[in-house]
């Protein structure tokens, strides 16, 4: 397995320690560093800042939201940063959910998320291949635009800039079974939000399309890690994250994160977390996240316990672990145990 550092997105403001963590990860031999976005800081700008201060570590977005940019704009970001970093970018994309797409980006959530994702990836790849002008007549993306409110003057265009790599990796963040199966068919990798080495069957059917593929396919789950003696205290940040995603990142009637937790065997607990969060009882929602669930998707505890649990992760199809930790000592311990 390879190691990546997942820095996420900013909270109230930029964290001055994050560049130092990225530099330490590169020094330790981590393969990649990843940034993301929700409804505040964007994914590409911090990654460009990190790129300017590093020389070897790969740079990934996990994830850049598709609703934030047209596919051609995303491809422009990607080819620009790939040039500036010397070919180190990995483009991770995600559709997000209706609450963010409609509430933050002010556009309709697609009635067919699979079609919208497939079209988006196709346009991005056309830009990066630069074999000709971008032409796509789809349900959600039209190049040139041919809608009734257009001028009719649009013409197919090819990127002025030659991409550094026509095969720049495109990875997808997917949670639903059909979305994961499509990811296995059309993308270069998958970015799971939750992954449990104790439940190998959860994704087995969705990943079946990989059996007919050739070449490498990246599976890079995010893993909260903490080397500590007090396991309950070490799990608290994991439970806080889960409480927010399961309770607050979606509506009670449509929350992809809660649905995934339910498919992983914790349906009753997921609905309780949702209900408590919706009622404004956020602290109780965090406490309602089962310790067992938080523990099986993370690496928390003394060094010997983490080493033992890593052996479980090695038996899975995961190719990379994207470690979330603000602690340099934890990053060093994982490097010693994995690399």
Automatic annotation (TrEMBL):
InterPro entries, sorted: F420-G6PD/mer (IPR050564), F420_OxRdatse_Rv3520c_pred (IPR019951), Luciferase-like_dom (IPR011251), Luciferase-like_sf (IPR036661)
Protein name: LLM class F420-dependent oxidoreductase
Gene3D superfamilies: Luciferase-like domain
Single Gene Ontology MF annotation: oxidoreductase activity, acting on paired donors, with incorporation or reduction of molecular oxygen
Keyword annotations from UniProtKB, A to Z: Oxidoreductase
Signal peptide: none
Residue span(s) of domain Luciferase-like: 20-318
Matches recorded under CDD domains: Tetrahydromethanopterin_reductase (cd01097)
SUPFAM superfamilies membership: Bacterial luciferase-like (SSF51679)
Pfam families membership: Bac_luciferase (PF00296)
């Amino acid at each position: 397995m390879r190691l990546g550092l997942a820095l996420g997105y900013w909270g109230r403001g930029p964290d001055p320690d994050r560049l130092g963590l990225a530099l330490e990860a590169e020094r330790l031999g981590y393969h990649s560093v990843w940034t993301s976005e929700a409804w505040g800081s964007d994914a590409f700008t911090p990654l460009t800042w990190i790129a300017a201060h590093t020389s070897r570590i790969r740079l990934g977005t996990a994830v850049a939201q598709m609703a934030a940019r047209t596919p051609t704009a995303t491809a422009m970001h990607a080819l620009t940063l790939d040039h500036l970093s010397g070919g180190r970018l990995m483009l991770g994309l995600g559709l997000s959910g209706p609450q963010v797409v409609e509430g933050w980006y002010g556009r309709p959530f697609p009635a067919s998320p699979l079609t919208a994702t497939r079209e988006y990836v196709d346009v991005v790849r056309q830009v990066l291949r630069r074999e000709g002008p971008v032409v796509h007549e789809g349900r959600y993306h039209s190049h040139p635009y041919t809608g009734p409110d257009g001028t009719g003057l649009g013409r197919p265009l090819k990127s002025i800039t030659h991409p550094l790599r026509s095969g720049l990796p495109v990875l997808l963040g997917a949670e639903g079974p059909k979305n994961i199966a499509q990811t296995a068919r059309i993308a270069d990798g998958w970015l799971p939000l939750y992954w449990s080495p104790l439940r190998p069957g959860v994704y087995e059917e969705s990943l079946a399309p990989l059996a007919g593929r050739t070449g490498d396919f990246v599976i890079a789950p995010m893993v909260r890690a903490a080397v500590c003696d007090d396991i309950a205290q070490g799990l608290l940040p994991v439970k806080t994250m889960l409480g927010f995603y399961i309770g607050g990142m979606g509506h009670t009637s449509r929350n992809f994160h809660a649905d995934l937790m339910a498919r992983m065997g914790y349906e009753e607990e997921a609905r309780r977390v949702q209900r408590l969060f919706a009622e404004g009882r956020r602290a109780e929602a965090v406490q309602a996240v089962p310790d067992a669930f938080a523990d099986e998707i993370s690496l928390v505890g003394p060094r010997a316990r983490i080493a033992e649990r890593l052996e479980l992760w090695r038996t899975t199809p995961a190719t990379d672990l994207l470690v979330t930790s603000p602690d340099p000592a934890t990053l060093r311990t994982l490097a010693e145990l994995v690399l």
